[in-house]
Amino acid sequence: MFHFSNIVRTKGDPKIVEGGPSLKRPADQLARALGWFSIGLGVVELFAPRRVTETLGMEGRETMVRAFGVREVMSGIMSLSVEKNAGLWARVGGDGLDAAALLSGLTPDNPKRGNIALALLMVGGIAMLDYRAAQDTKPRRPPRDARRKLYPSRSGFPKGIESVRTAARQIAAHGQNEVKQGDERRVP
Is the dihedral of CA 150, 153, 155, 157 positive or negative? Predict the structure, then answer.
């Protein structure tokens, strides 16, 4: 990815020679992968529902497949967002709906029961990944009995607020002196 950023850099900007380790945790990387997978699957279900229903021997259910496609795209987008945990739980719920829909097509008169069984296995595997990712990305909160750290006496300035005020006064006084000396010197 850093190769692309080198292309768009302006003249004089330093070039990136090597990419460093990713700051994303493995759970975040899994959530991202599942989000993109969800978007890809949703696009297929949305734009080629007849192909999906023919493969599964479930002709006539194209509207349901399109609705599932919309759900997949939306949960994929949520999985790629800051609120990835909500998107991953939406994917877990969607996996249950997918399994129920597939089970309804697993009838003795369906000649493509093998395809449905394979699809059920895949949904089961993906469901386990979705559940794992949803568990691993849930918001971390401190335990209820944990002591809160309170900082009422801190100002955010290591030497105290008074040292900052003194420095600001010195800078202001110095700047006024330079302006009074005339226009020959410009204040930076």
Answer: negative
pLDDT in tens, 15-62: 766 666 666 788 888 999 999 999 999 999 999 999 999 999 999 999
Per-residue DSSP letter, 9: P
Cβ-proximal residues to 68 (8 Å cutoff; 6+ apart), any chain? 42, 45, 94, 97, 98, 101
Residues 118, 70, 30, 140, Cα dihedral to 10°: -130
Distance CA 105, CA 53 (A): 10
Helix 26-47, helix 49-56: angle, nearest 10: 90
CB burial readout 16-55, b (16+ within 10 A) else e: eeeeeeeeeeebeebbeebbebbbebbeebbebbeebbee
How far from chain centre, in Å, is Cα 57?
A: 35
For 128-178, the pLDDT digits (tens) are 999 999 998 887 777 777 777 777 766 677 777 788 888 889 888 887 665
The distance of Cα 71 from the centroid of its chain, to the nearest Å, equals 17
